[in-house]
């Protein structure tokens, strides 16, 4: 096991720092670092059987049945043969073991595939091909383009200029944009010289293994010098090398110590609410079983004392036997006989049902996305019925509700808006596919797939309007985009927002061509201009802006800044006040169209001030303490007295069907919470766009306090508004409840609909222990909640808070690695196969390609699965309780002797053969109404949230029903058969004949009862029910035949009983009467319930029958509202920007674009980006997003939604 590095933590104390030496395996092995092999499997050939059995017998049910088996081998106790228990037990253990073995074999295959990948390792001065798992800490390895990175490496050298490498980190952070890493100059000088690399003996002292993907600290000792190491010099396992011919790296961490594996963690084993309820009920059943056995044991003791002496003549007792010993043995005998109260087949059936319902999700063509060729996938089989009980949905925004495709839509420049289209009468027109687009043929470098509809903007550019040209010059210069040319000009952007803006500037004549650490080259209206790059004031989530300082070819020094409007406006020169007011009005208009905004400003910089500032900037950037704070002060000093140019408006397109899906889920009384890293204005605006927030709401509360007291006051004000009648005596829940896990906050009844928006700073206070319940109590009274600027940890905390204090099922849905913690924390995790890698999908329980499929997953598959499971449990308990209670009544007529009322073979086959398939047919094929009616009436989903179909109350009703049926099944045959003769004059009232009649009545009754439960008959259901009855009679006549008796007289003692009993007319009359008596109360109860207290299911089923299962009339598609009065906001990437990288000679070097001789009318280029809508578009994957695709089937929601 130590081969895979699993015992290294046991053999030594947890390391505080790591020390290693390059090319010195002997030195490094002394530290017992983990090798590069990974092991995610649980078993091997020798450990599988003992470990798997150990795990299976941790389930109390399996231990119980093993205990029964041990009791059955004691002759003094058991009245049943051992095979009645051992056969079902072995079957359950074997099925579970086979499933576990299959899963583990797949894990072994995955491990072997990864561990046996080849990589070139420098050993003894030569490059040797080695398996990944043979790589050791301190080895130097060579990677080539498009290879996966083998381990966590210190980059030594690369084929690219300045020792740069480009990596894709989608599997780590979900981002598909290329990242840049750069080696130290001292190691980069070795290049690919094998002799110099083999002689490299540098020592690294760095941090211990940890899971921080964005942080690394360490030092390299080489020669007489010490060099600082940071995250920009590290290549992490899980990344992919791109656009780099080769690179060399030094292994720092391997296998389980890599940051990728450190972040994997353990998957939480999720169990459904029905599973938890079943555990409680099983314990209760054990108590009832013990009570029944105790009653019968006392009965045996009394019987032995009062009447047992009469039977000693033909049943002589052992010398040491007495009534007490007999009662003790009888107790354990009845534990064996009555064990069917908790049948082991229950657990097998549950797993089969869940597996079958999972296949329905995988096979559903209406959840298949044709564009991405992605089907829905049930990645777990244990949570299907939980899908029918969801009350709270926690969703990411970007990539989940939106497409993460940004399109340049509108802008405002110097107080004038561009982007709207007007007719000849001056009225605004809607833009559609027939609207005339702007002709960019004047620009040979324009993106042919870029589209814009307002001709006035391009005319102002051609006329040379200074403000307009300055606007696009800023967009072409102020960014961290990297340009490359491979048969076409293409951009690699840190965020899709930046890509869309640079693409827009490109089409309007300001083409970003290339960059070096000291310069930016652009084409301005056909003329090449080279700007000296003096500094980049990079973006972060606190600054909410970025700036560049450049010197133009004419020697003019300027600062160009872009960022959130609220931040930019605070730093404007007083002379811009009027322009700011006009621009603010335009921003509000853009917000009404659901757009993300970004303000642009500039200023000229004095050379003398710049020189002093750059000196102080250099000192701050090299400081070892408080570096960030010092830089922030310098940035603030520079970014003052800005002059406003205008603002951009970018559309973050919603995914198809998002507003309709949210509306449909709202009708199903499912509350939606959006947890996003975007700023408040952006998230709030998207909330209105996707119909999560509506103008019709009574009020949308905004919680934005900057102190705990302010946040608490705002929460209480919101609560007071929603519950004014309780405002005077309002007392929030005490903090002591926080320590009580079982405490739950009940939903408050609120008149009207409300929404709540809370920003990240306020949420941090709201999640504190002293305020968490205040926040939860208020938020749960709202129909929709939006949490902005939240971190991945806060997402998980919000989900955990709701899980802990609300007795409701939660579902989290997202598409990025930053959603993984939320997905794992929720009861159900759903991953969207989006543009941000597959980390969310890999951690999810269910996955599909579009958010709109969530409604079908819940309202159809989830509801059906829950309904089927509840029907299965009710029926299963009914048939087994009825079966077992008959034994209890029979005990009073057999002297409490532990004699069974049925034949042993019937007991063995009852659950495994006679009643197995009918109940599986019910649980796999039944549905109250089809998917059409399920969408038409989302209210059908509500009973699942309220646990109406299976609960403790439903269980006790089932037990009472079983008790009544068992009385009928025992006493009617008993009364009918006593003192009764056959047609030939022989006695019919013997034990064996009574057993055959009783078990036949039982099987017929439970089959009729199951038929009453079935709401949707199929050929399979019919075959299962009829076939089970036929199977019973065939097996019964075969088992009780002369031939079987001759083979084994002790095992087949009921010779001839079936043919001698079932040929009597009065026996069949008894069977008919018994069945009617058992079923009649059920029919009466259901008739009265449907007539007097019909449920929503009863009403919809009645309508469906009236319509003869025809779909309801198609409703006209309502036009979804997009406008709102809320301000929008621009959201940068969540990560730190590229500014430091660009200005420190770590840049993406690509051939510059050949300068054009001038602007001449010519055919537009066929290169560059893919269209992404009706305006400029950019996607981080540079894939086709709006190309012509075959028509796909209309979604169910579009077909069946009502206005």
Can you walk through the features of this model?
It is elongated and about 125 Å long. Helices cover 42% and strands 16% of the residues. A hairpin with a 3-residue loop joins β22 and β23 (519-524).
Task: List its traits.
1203 residues; 16% strand; 10-stranded antiparallel sheet; alpha+beta; disordered N terminus; 9-stranded mixed sheet; single chain; elongated
Distance between the termini: 62 Å
Instruction: Round the mean pLDDT to the nearest integer and report it.
Output: 81
Number of DSSP strands?
36
pLDDT < 50 stretches: 1-12, 734-742, 1115-1135, 1146-1203
Largest sheet, in brief, is: 10 strands, antiparallel
Number of helices: 41
Rg, Cα atoms, Å = 37 Å
Strand content: 15-25%
Report the structural category. Answer: alpha+beta
* General form: elongated
Helix content: 40-55%
SSE map:
Blueprint (H helix, E strand, L loop, with lengths): L7 H4 L5 E5 L3 H5 L18 H9 L3 H13 L10 H33 L2 E6 L2 E6 L8 E5 L7 E7 L5 E5 L1 H4 L4 E5 L2 H4 L5 H5 L4 E5 L10 E5 L2 E5 L4 E2 L4 E3 L3 E8 L5 H6 L8 H34 L16 H15 L7 H19 L13 E2 L11 E6 L6 E12 L2 E3 L2 E2 L5 E2 L25 H8 L3 H12 L4 E4 L3 E4 L3 H12 L2 E6 L3 E6 L2 E11 L7 E7 L5 E7 L1 H5 L7 H16 L2 E10 L2 H15 L5 H12 L4 E12 L3 H10 L3 E5 L4 H10 L9 E5 L4 H15 L31 E5 L1 H7 L5 H8 L4 E4 L4 H14 L3 E6 L5 H6 L2 E5 L6 H4 L3 E3 L4 H39 L12 H11 L1 H10 L5 H6 L5 H4 L6 H26 L13 H23 L5 H21 L2 H6 L9 H5 L3 H28 L3 H11 L32 H5 L32 E3 L17 H5 L3
Parallel strand pairs: 15-29, 15-33, 29-32, 30-31, 31-32, 33-34, 34-35
Antiparallel strand pairs: 1-8, 2-3, 2-4, 4-13, 5-11, 5-13, 6-7, 6-12, 8-9, 9-10, 14-35, 16-17, 16-28, 16-36, 18-19, 20-21, 22-23, 23-24, 24-25, 25-26, 26-27, 27-28
